[in-house]
Amino acid sequence: xxxxxxxxxxxxxxxxxxxxxxxxxxxxxxxxxxxxxxxxxxxxxxxxxxxxxxxxxxxxxxxxxxxxxxxxxxxxxxxxxxxxxxxxxxxxxxxxxxxxxxxxxxxxxxxxxxxxxxxxxxxxxxxxxxxxxxxxxxxxxxxxxxxxxxxxxxxxxxxxxxxxxxxxxxxxxxxxxxxxxxxxxxxxxxxxxxxxxxxxxxxxxxxx
Length: 208
What we know:
Blueprint: H1 3-14, H2 43-46, E1 60-64, E2 73-74, E3 86-90, E4 96-104, E5 109-122, E6 132-139, E7 142-151, E8 162-170, E9 177-185, E10 192-205
Antiparallel strand pairs: 1-4, 2-3, 3-10, 4-9, 5-8, 5-10, 6-7, 6-9
């Protein structure tokens, strides 16, 4: 076989077939799915059922230890600030309670602001946070924003609903959905009750 034919055969043997070329690992990925809300959405799009009155979307209730028949929503022991129900947390000693709901977040979300109405009653006058109500935003089980907290030190023997100062938090992640959680941690003495109503969640996005 001539030298020319040998070179031609070798070239054919090493050339890849056009139909078998693998996709480049650097190829662009498909665009992310569109979000359900945008940065200019109204606050009720981010947090529906913000006054706790609707059957759906329901607020998920959890307590440790579990007490049969216990509800963290009420409308008879206090006059709600809005509608017929309010979040009624605390009221017991030695328990952990939580109310949570899924919220939608827009692409580019950077900060979240929570406002609402509070009424806190307590017999605990210690200058220590013995009973605490925290507000957090979670992605699965990871906290991505911590708004702040109230405690027995914010309470009094009697109370009326008043607006609380805006609680502002910076997001550490930007998922399409997150969980807003109200979590009360109660010590074993001197009962405190946390009543929350008429919540509003606003989201600020990164500048384009």
